[in-house]
Structure formats: C-alpha cells, structure tokens
Amino acid sequence: MSLSIGVDIGGTKIAAGVVDVAGKLLAEARRPTPSADPAQVEALVVEVVGELRATHEDVAAVGV
Length: 64
Prior knowledge:
alpha+beta; four-stranded mixed beta sheet; 4 strands; 28% helix; elongated
C-alpha cells in the first residue's frame, strides 16, 4: 500500500498526517510552531516526518 504524509505549517502548530490512497488518516503528529526561528521550524518538520515514517515504512511522498 502506498502512503503519503501531508505537513501543515501554521502559526501555532506544525501538524502532519499519514494517509492511504483513499485519504484515510492513519496517524498524526503535532508540534508547536517556533515562529521566531525558521531553522527550528525546518528541524521540526523533519522530526515529525521521521516520527511518522518510523511506524509507516511504505511512505511514497511528502507534501508541505
């Protein structure tokens, strides 16, 4: 099964979710957005994607 991760970078939170081909949400992760530090935002996006990929190895794409 091919999975995708979607990432939403908002003013208060970074939210990411794993979805299947039908759009069903399988897992999600969230972190507060460190709005004053772009490098930290980038690091948290990498962190949440890595967290989700650790339990869902069949990820074919990531969208931001």
